[in-house]
Structures are given as C-alpha cells and as structure tokens.
Sequence to fold (141 residues):
Amino acid sequence: MLLKGVLFFALCALFQIGSAAIREAQSVRVQGSLTCEGRPYPGAKVKLYDHDTFTLDDKMAETETDSRGYFDISGTENELTRLNAKFNIYHRCRKTVPICYYKASFAIPYDYVTSGQQASKIFDAGTIELSILKKDRDCIN
Fold:
C-alpha cells in the first residue's frame, strides 16, 4: 500500500514537471477608470485572475485605482490551455457602512490574451460607473 502511494506521488510529480515544460506564457493587460456617481473613484482594488473551472482562480496581479480613478494592470500565467482572464473590482461606492466590499467581475475577451511575458494588446475597459453595477458582497478579498 505504501509503495502504491509513493508511486502515485512520483507519477504526479513527473506529470507536473513535464507539463510545466510545455506550458505557454500568456499575458493580458487591462486599463480603465472607475467613477462613483460621476466622480473619479480612488483606492478601489483591482485584481487580475485566470479563471479556472475545477480549481481556485490564479491571481495574476493586483493594483489600486489612483486619485483619478484610473487603473492599468497586467499579468502573466503559464497554462496548457488559453487563459480565461477576468478582472475583479472591489469597492465601497455608495456603501454607508464600511464593512466588506462590493465586488464586480468582468471577463476579458480571448482576443486580448497574447503569448509571451508581456501583453501585446491592451483591453480598454473604459469608464466603469460603480454605482450602477450589480452588488455582490466580498469580505475576504
């Protein structure tokens, strides 16, 4: 029984090492700005992820909006398949009690995922008005 466990572990390790060698570096970059009731929204968290179906999403990068509500975020992930990129925004626009955050998630079109360590295209998210978004709550982000 112990031998089977060791053999299984060794095969899993070999698969991981072998698949790592054939994984392709893929990158994505997103820029945009956030407003709350028409005014720039500084200090919102913006996180870039590779969405995975059967495992936890891989966080590729994290930033905050500047004093003008602007963000520019990019990240790279090595994957066997094409990245399923998304970005999440965590904010407190129109939140009267500053406990937890509102969360909004946006898919990034596959056309903006490029091969290599740096994104060769930029997904322009435009100006996002936070006060009109669907309001999911997130206390752990």
Summary: The longest helix spans residues 2-22. The chain has one domain: 2-138. The mean pLDDT is 86. The longest strand covers residues 24-36.
